[in-house]
Amino acid sequence: MRSPFWSLMNPLRCGPLLLLLTACASTPSVPPPHSQEEFVLAKDVRVRRMAPGVWMHVTEASGDWAGVTANGLLVEDGDASILVDTGWTPEHAQALLTWARDTLHHPVRAAVVTHFHLDRTGGIPTLDAQGIPVHAREDTALRAGKQGNPVPSRRLADAQDFGPLSVFFPGAGHSPDNLVVMHPASGILYGGCFIKDAHAKSLGNLEDADVAAWPSSLQREREHFPNARIIIPGHEQPGGPELLDHTEALLKR
């Protein structure tokens, strides 16, 4: 819409100015990060804007899990940011840290991992090397060590605020130690592998799961975070509260 400023100008006198502005407007420029919805950081790493200050990162595995993608969060916190889950590999984590620092201009100051599997903990060595503390439950650290996976250096309570986030252990499900993470300001709940995507036909990897406890844990999650509007599962596409219903339906099968 035309600004009132232009309507007040004499059209006979503003021609040169209009030409100058048109020429300037045609100069190619790179839009700021907040105006874009998705960035590809590497062939196997990308980030997607979910809400102001909240980004979902997606990393793709190779090797034994080749082609499997895993989600996580990057959440702005003042002039820094918090990483939730670290990608499959140190290289994934490095791509995320570099982008947060150089493009987003909110360098990562801390990280949270939601359980002990490699799709959550694989990038920890990169954060350790840069002195960035990685937080998790004590059970997660113990299980990561026994599995031979990278071990988070700091500990979390079962329910606590963490900057702009709220972390909660609802009980065993996909794994005995799985956390969920809420960003209350946006209504985004990151369920990790505790929550399945809308197209999932099964509960996925059940090697460490407690299927008997999972339904009760899911109910505790619903009660603890009743205002979740957007749900991000550990794999595949985000959705709404229907992802909780779908996970529950899969458990009933």
From TrEMBL:
Gene3D superfamilies for this protein: Ribonuclease Z/Hydroxyacylglutathione hydrolase-like (3.60.15.10)
Cofactor(s) annotated in UniProt: Zn(2+)
GO biological process: antibiotic catabolic process; response to antibiotic
Residues covered by the Metallo-beta-lactamase domain: 69-235
Keywords per UniProt: Antibiotic resistance, Hydrolase, Metal-binding, Periplasm, Signal, Zinc
Compartments where found: Periplasm
Region (Disordered): 234-253
Feature: compositional bias, Basic and acidic residues: 243-253
Signal peptide feature range: 1-25
Reactions it catalyzes: a beta-lactam + H2O = a substituted beta-amino acid
Molecular function terms from GO: beta-lactamase activity; zinc ion binding
GO cellular component: periplasmic space
EC number of this enzyme: 3.5.2.6
Major localization class: periplasm
Major enzyme class: hydrolase
KW Signal (keyword) present: yes
Similarity comment text for this entry: Belongs to the metallo-beta-lactamase superfamily. Class-B beta-lactamase family.
Subunit relationships: Monomer.
Listed name of the protein: beta-lactamase
